[in-house]
Structures
1.
Amino acid sequence: MQQFSFHTHTIFSDGKNSAEEMLNQAVKLGWSEIGISDHLIIHENITASPSWCRWQKEPHIFWNNFEKIYDYFARNCEYIRKISDNYPLKIRLGAEVDFFPYGGWIEKFIKIRERLELDYCISGNHYLILDDQYHNLLDIKDVDKIDSNQQVKAIRRHLKTLCLAAQSGLFEFIAHIDYMRKIDIFTDPQFDEDKKEVIEFFAHNDITTEISTKGLRKNGVFYPCLPMLKQLVDNRVKLVISDDAHRVEELGYQFDYAEKTLQELNCVNRWSFVDK
Ligand SMILES: [Zn+2]
Ligand SMILES: [Zn+2]
């Protein structure tokens, strides 16, 4: 069974436990390795979002200034590196990053990623993008603020963004590819072709994605759902099991069930961390 998770959060972003508590639990589970991937959400126009009133309550998660988020992340990185020696497992420092390819974002992101000396990044896209220039974002809790036509466009843009994130080469894997199923119309067959294109893009470009047990915790279905998972395996897309743990008891959550599911689907292409 997979004995690690690279998709985990601590109180530094929206997790409920400290890094120490998460690391202690990983040791208890007998893991030899763990990656900590707190949220890195930086968009210079974020305060113009119709959802800003929601996000501004969490100023340590939603940022509009690259220098400031660098300072915040750097302090945490330094802290985790300092405590790492106390644990008998390999600790990798990462981030779960919302990918916003508006002009200049990628270059600025690469700079802070390098300065932070992160071991890895995963792409986790959580917001609707309201325009092709990626200037305006919306929290999916505010999806009712846009009409159904705009919702369709935003979902298509989101699925395209997953491919752009993958293509950027900045991410070790792409998280929760059907995250937008939180919006009712995401399951509509009109998006089947768009989803298929994402999976084929991943297949042709050797992109890794996750099977996340967070979906099981939330509504009894993996991220991604079984039909997408089956398509991923059939296309031989590389997979990693994630728990997207936000608290200690979520580390390794239902990994045995995820393993069993991958076996039943005859998945042979599995991801593991490779030092660069
Ligand atoms: Zn996420
Ligand atoms: Zn996450």
2.
Amino acid sequence: MSQKALGKHFRKGISLIEITRMFPNDHVAEAWFEKQRWGAVGKPSTCPICSKSGKISSVPSRKPLPYWCGSCRRNFSVKTNSVMHRSHIGYQKWAMAIYLWTTTLKGVSSMKLHRDLEITQKSAYFMAQRLRKAWDVSGLEKMIGPAEADETYMGGKRRNMSNAKRKTQTGQGAVGKVAVAGIKDRKSNRVVANVVGSTEKDTLQGFIKDNVETGSELYTDEHASYPGIDGYSHKSVRHSCNEYVKGVVHTNGVESFWAMFKRAHKGTYHKMSLKYLQRYVDEFTTRHNLRSSDTAKMMQDTVAMMDGKRLTYADLIADSGLESGARK
Ligand SMILES: [Zn+2]
């Protein structure tokens, strides 16, 4: 049977050649950002700073802040009040960065942004942090299941342990590893994941309750923290007995997400700082969650997610040097 007959959706990509035609210069790219953020090219109907309308004018001579709000008496641009706020990088490079960010499954190192966009390493590093901030989406509506929940560890020596042994070690014990709890919703294919302080019952069950509607089907492995969870139809497989799939009961979906995340950790972000692991977790969950869309839609959604989010200078420099391995 052909894939079409199975009703599979083929996502529409954008080739490198097409993307260079879409964004031939800063001017065209700036208009694209305005269209995405404000719904039309040119001055917006409301001010991105004070949210008032009616007194906004175009002042092209004031570039890079070509608009003026008479209410708050401030100049602004389409970068204002977004993760691009006060970025000196041009619109064409921002658009290209979003393209790379959304289309590269294993993540984009700041070294690659530095080389491909012809920007300094420092700018590339900050740009990556800004994009991660855009993709930090919390507070989405709860999943309705069936949901697969699982936990994993990043860093430390657990990597060398067998899966079964690792799973039996639920405490905080070993140094240098961080637990991450994750859930994959089978219906929507959405993944949510959080760095957690421990893998104890209260923590893992609390994470499920925060993210999955009660009454949903819930599948896990035999980890001791899951049995007895209230309000869910919970079933598990016993990985320690080599039982991985029992009918619909398995955690393969969430585990393939972990596998992807770990490959990226190893291959792209050699020194993903555990201290700032949540930023990378957000990056990979959002990339996964947007992935079934066409590339153009993924890029539009990313611009929408930039809105109202700003990084302070302290945020930006907080873990600088991490990819050069200067810090653990
Ligand atoms: Zn204003």
